[in-house]
């Protein structure tokens, strides 16, 4: 606030001033616009772009936060492929993304289809199914998950009551721990569901009506009409969810007590970045990892976009 | 316009100036004889105090701070506490930003690093006045000393121990351990015990993940964990022997399976300890944990020394400061902080409020103050501590900067044996490689 007031006064003065006759109205307006944007621009440069660029520099150094950074060139990047735990974190993250994103999108689409049938109380259902997404990223839910799937948790008590004498200890057995986290991730299908639902609403009813006249089955209608017309939204959701899944952190951090355990089976990429940075104070190494993640996500996103012309279908293109 | 804080900072710097030291010391002595409390000088303000620990510790610490504020109203406190791992993430970040709390709880694992980076103040000049260390246990105080300087004041002494569930042992019809067992005896005892324990209870917790009993084990072999220049002093063979010992116990069904060990490692609150949950009869932990565990279980708990090495080997246990208070090198209140710490360690009311929750107090008077007031488990802690400190050997080498990383690497590789089917020798190789890397980084 304090910053904006003098800036606003300055902008008004600039706009009123007649000593700059050569400026056209448009350029005067754009100067005013930039002056008004200044607080935000300062924030962008000072709090976002600046630190990002600084982190690029830090990634070429050895830096423990307290002593001055020491330039070591590409050493951090060269060390990555020889670090067994780094490779493990890449493996864990790929498994997580490849399972969580498709499952979450399928769930979101399936529920959107169910909710699109116009039954009564739709708003209530929508809210109920969206709720996990509001709660799901939070620490509280991760703690709840830890209790549910713990050795004496609800899940195992229920499994025991239906006759499974020795169910696995889901979170503490490296064979299962990651999948319980995938399940928690899939459960947060709310926001893609809302987007799919909006997309379904926009598909003109006439298309279905004429398909019915032609005798197309429901399955055929889904694969020939619904799915192709939803592809722009599938693309949108896919990109957003992939970016989000690569950055998954909270659940793994809470459930594994910050260790990525048992035996590194839930060592997601961001968790390893965090551990290296704030656990071991290897800031240079951690920022190098963060930059690799940024580049990898950028490449994957670009690849999805460039593949989209083969599978994404925009209705306008085929219009009459 | 100078703020109050700047003014105080200037004052503190003046006070700290070497030329004024004799004067300050004289004031300290003079006013102590008059008012019965340590000298506080003319300064006042609000001190930031931080520690790790649970609610019980928080209540006790808060009470001690209130007592100090009531007696010296010019001093106020802002306090923050959290669990151990989160605490160090936070302290590290604050250290980087030059914003460490004025007084913060220090661990033996980190004191060397913080002192060498000049983040914490040398308090040696306050030893005889504000800190009131006249009757402090010398062996315990040595833990806070680094090359002549005093960088942390120990808040309590602890010794590594084997805590056990006496009720479960009696129900199984066995005699409790004597504390004279060798590692081989302990394994035999656990195997015998496990045959009569109910299903779902194992004789021992899995300590292969635990650096502290491993340190006892390695010290019985006449080594320390690290060399003076900060390299690993344990060998691959030491690791193989350690992992194999627990693998054999596990094989015999005498220690908890990997999943239970992993669950505790990932969430090590006292109430999650297999000993407290009735899943294990033995747990190797520090002597002050008896007081933390006993209220959490109906069973009667006991405590004996850890198993000893082969005949003729030296004792592995050592006297350790459970935690220390260190003062930020950048604080404006060095003198005030030292006065508070002196109060914390020696004032009878503060000592009563704190109890031996952080370990046995170093001040002889504080110990005498506590003795008539102790609960049975606290008395057991004090007795155990007094007996065992006679049998310890001093630990002289401070942990190097990769030590926190090595603790995690030990747990990870130890757990990979039961959980991922890694062989003992493979786990030892991997651990050695990771330890070397952590220490050379």
What coarse outline of chain A follows from CA principal-axis ratios? globular
Mean pLDDT of chain B: 87
**Broad structural category of chain A:** mainly alpha
Coarse shape of chain B: globular
Quantity of strands of chain A, as a count: 2
Spatial strand sequence of the major β-sheet of chain A: 1-2
With helices defined by DSSP (H or I, 4 residues minimum), what is the helix count of chain B? 19
Rounded to the nearest angstrom, the radius of gyration of chain A is: 26 Å
Describe this structure as you would to a colleague.
The complex is a heterodimer of chains A (320) and B (441). By secondary structure, chain A is mainly alpha-helical. Chain A has helices spanning 4-16, 25-58, 75-79, 84-115, 122-136, 139-148, 154-161, 177-186, 190-202, 205-213, 218-246, 250-255, 269-279, 283-311; strands at residues 61-62, 70-71. Helices cover 70% and strands 1% of the residues of chain A. In chain A, helix 1 (4-16) packs antiparallel against helix 2, helix 4 runs parallel beside helix 8 and helix 4 packs across helix 9. Chain A is globular. Chain B is globular and about 65 Å long. Classes of the chains: A mainly alpha (320), B alpha/beta (441). The interface between A and B is medium-sized, with 28 and 33 residues.
């Amino acid at each position: 606030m304090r910053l904006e007031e003098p800036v606003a006064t300055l902008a008004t003065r600039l706009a009123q001033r007649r000593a700059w006759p050569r400026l056209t109205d448009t350029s005067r307006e754009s100067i005013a616009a930039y002056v008004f944007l200044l607080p935000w621009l300062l924030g962008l440069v000072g709090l976002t772009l600046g630190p990002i660029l600084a982190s690029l520099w830090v990634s070429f150094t050895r830096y423990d936060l307290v002593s001055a950074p020491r330039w070591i060139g590409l050493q951090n990047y060269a060390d990555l492929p020889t670090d067994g735990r780094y490779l493990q974190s890449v493996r864990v993250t790929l498994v997580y993304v490849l399972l969580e994103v498709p499952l979450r999108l399928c769930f979101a689409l399936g529920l959107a289809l169910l909710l699109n049938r116009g039954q009564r109380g739709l708003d209530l259902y929508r809210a109920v199914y969206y709720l996990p997404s509001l709660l799901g990223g939070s620490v509280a839910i991760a703690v709840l998950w830890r209790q549910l799937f713990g050795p004496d948790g609800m899940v195992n008590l229920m499994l025991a009551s239906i006759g499974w004498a020795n169910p696995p200890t889901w979170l503490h057995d490296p064979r299962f721990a990651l999948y319980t986290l995938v399940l928690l991730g899939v459960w947060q299908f709310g926001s893609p569901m809302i987007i799919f639902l909006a997309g379904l609403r926009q598909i003109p009813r006439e298309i279905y009506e004429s398909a019915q006249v032609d005798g197309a089955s429901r399955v055929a209608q889904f694969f020939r009409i619904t799915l192709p017309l939803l592809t722009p939204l599938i693309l949108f959701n896919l990109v957003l969810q992939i970016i989000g899944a690569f950055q998954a952190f909270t659940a793994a951090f809470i459930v594994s007590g910050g260790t990525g355990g048992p035996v590194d089976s839930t060592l997601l990429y961001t968790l390893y970045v965090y551990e290296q940075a704030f656990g071991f104070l290897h800031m240079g190494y951690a920022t190098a990892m963060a930059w690799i993640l940024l580049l990898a996500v950028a490449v994957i996103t670009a690849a999805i976009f460039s593949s989209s012309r083969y599978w994404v279908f925009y209705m306008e293109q085929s219009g009459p | 316009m100078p703020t109050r804080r700047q003014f105080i900072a200037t004052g503190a710097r003046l006070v700290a100036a070497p030329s004024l030291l004799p004067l300050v010391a004289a004031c300290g002595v003079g006013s102590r004889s008059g008012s019965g409390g340590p000298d506080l000088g003319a300064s006042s303000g609000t001190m930031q105090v931080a520690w790790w620990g649970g609610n019980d510790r928080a209540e006790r610490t808060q009470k001690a701070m209130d007592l100090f504020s009531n007696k010296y109203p010019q001093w106020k406190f802002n306090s923050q506490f959290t669990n151990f791992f989160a605490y160090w993430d936070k302290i590290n970040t604050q250290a980087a930003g030059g914003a460490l709390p004025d007084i913060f709880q220090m661990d033996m694992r980190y004191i060397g690093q913080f002192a060498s980076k000049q983040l914490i103040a040398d308090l040696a000049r306050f030893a005889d006045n504000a800190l009131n260390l006249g009757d402090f246990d010398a062996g315990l105080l040595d833990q806070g000393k680094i090359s002549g300087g005093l960088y942390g004041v120990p808040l309590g002494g602890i010794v590594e121990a084997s805590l056990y569930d006496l009720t479960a042992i009696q129900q199984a019809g066995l005699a409790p351990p004597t504390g004279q067992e060798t590692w081989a005896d302990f394994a035999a005892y656990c195997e015998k015990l496990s045959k009569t324990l109910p299903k779902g209870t194992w004789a021992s917790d899995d300590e292969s993940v635990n650096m502290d009993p491993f340190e006892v084990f390695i010290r019985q072999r006449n080594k320390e964990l690290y060399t003076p220049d900060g390299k690993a002093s344990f060998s691959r063979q030491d690791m193989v022997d350690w992992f194999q010992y627990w693998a054999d116990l596990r094989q015999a069904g005498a220690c908890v399976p990997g999943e239970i060990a992993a669950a505790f490692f990932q969430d090590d609150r006292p109430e999650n300890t297999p000993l407290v949950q009735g899943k294990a009869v033995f747990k190797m932990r520090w002597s002050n944990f008896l007081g933390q565990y006993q209220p959490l279980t109906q069973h009667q708990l006991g405590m004996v020394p850890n198993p000893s090495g082969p005949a003729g080997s030296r004792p592995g246990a050592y006297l350790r400061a459970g935690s220390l208070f260190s003062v930020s090198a950048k604080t404006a209140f060095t003198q005030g902080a030292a006065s508070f710490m002196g109060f914390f360690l020696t004032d009878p009311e503060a000592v009563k409020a704190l109890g031996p929750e952080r370990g046995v107090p170093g001040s002889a008077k504080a110990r005498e103050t506590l003795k008539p007031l102790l609960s049975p488990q606290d008395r057991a802690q004090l007795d155990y501590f007094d007996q065992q400190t006679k049998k310890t050997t001093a630990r002289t080498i401070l942990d190097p900067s990769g030590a926190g990383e090595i603790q995690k690497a030990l747990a990870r590789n130890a757990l990979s044996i039961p959980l991922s089917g890694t062989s003992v020798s493979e786990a030892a190789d991997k651990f050695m490689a990771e330890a070397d890397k952590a220490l050379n980084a």
